[in-house]
Amino acid sequence: MFEEKFEKLGSSEQEQFKSIINFLLASTFLNQLSHDFEENIRKTNRDYLFVERNFELFSDYLSFAGFRLNRDDNYGVIYLSSDFDSTRQRFDKVTTVILFTLRLIYEEEREKLSLAREIFTSTADVVHKMVSLGIMAKKPSDRQLAESFRQLEKFQVIDKTAGAWEEPTTRILILPTILFMVTNERISAILEEMEKEAKDKDEDHEGEDTDADPA
Q1: What is the pTM assigned to this prediction?
Q2: DSSP H or E stretch at residue 29
Q3: Which pLDDT tens digit goes with each residue over 190-199?
Q4: Residues 6+ apart with CB under 8 A from 108
Q5: Angle at 136 between CA 130 and CA 139, to 5 degrees
Q6: Nearest one of 204, 201, 194, 189 to 134, comparing CA atoms
Q7: Is 199 helix (H, G, I), strand (E, B) or coil?
Q8: Domain-by-domain residue ranges, the chain?
């Protein structure tokens, strides 16, 4: 029983358990590694190790609320999933486009670095990529950029060095959690939708030319 297993934890471990449960419910993802930007080194997340040691205990507790606890040892990611639609986070258009762009950058850079986990980009590079791909007609406002980046940071998708999110030179770390937030299948679906929208626009322009009165 869950209660019996929980009581076997020390008082400090019980508090850590409660803290991690709240973190998972708020952020969905937990990364095994974090990056210390001051020392420029990777560090192991002690909360991740605690969940790893007590995975069954966390799984049992969360299952009561309809959540599944998942773990991918290859990428060092623990995350929640649920079949209840009410638990899903809805992102606005700007955040969705930024997330998709970050996923593309992550994939491109990972191939260059022999599947390395730590992929860095910058705010300027993300904006340039969005505009060059044609998925955003122009740069979002600084406020929109900052709000979207902060929301993705909350869900453990990105982290950053010192500086404001909207500053072009701000260095952004894309975390492996993005692979579980935007799957390869989802990328394909989004690209297909983009191609369809572009095709529809072209057809609309052709129709306008056809219907136009001769000079």
Answers
A1: 0.81
A2: strand 29-31
A3: 767 766 765 6
A4: none
A5: 80
A6: 194
A7: helix
A8: 2-83, 93-196
CB atoms within 10 A of CB 160: 20
- Model pLDDT, residue 214: 36
- For residue 113, the SS3 value is coil
Fold of 2-83: Arc Repressor Mutant, subunit A (1.10.10)
The predicted-structure confidence for 20-29, as pLDDT tens digits, reads as follows: 999 999 999 9
* Rounded Cα distance, 67 and 98, in Å: 27
Instruction: Assign 201 to helix, strand or coil.
Output: helix
CA atoms within 13 A on the CB side of 39: 6
Which residue is listed with tokens 């069954």? 56
Give the strand pairing for 119-122 and 77-82: unpaired
The CATH number assigned to the domain with range 93-196 reads 1.10.10.10
**Hey, what are 209's tokens?**
């030319």
Strand order in the sheet with 67-72: 29-31, 77-82, 67-72
Q: Tell me the C-alpha distance between 46 and 135, whole Å.
A: 39
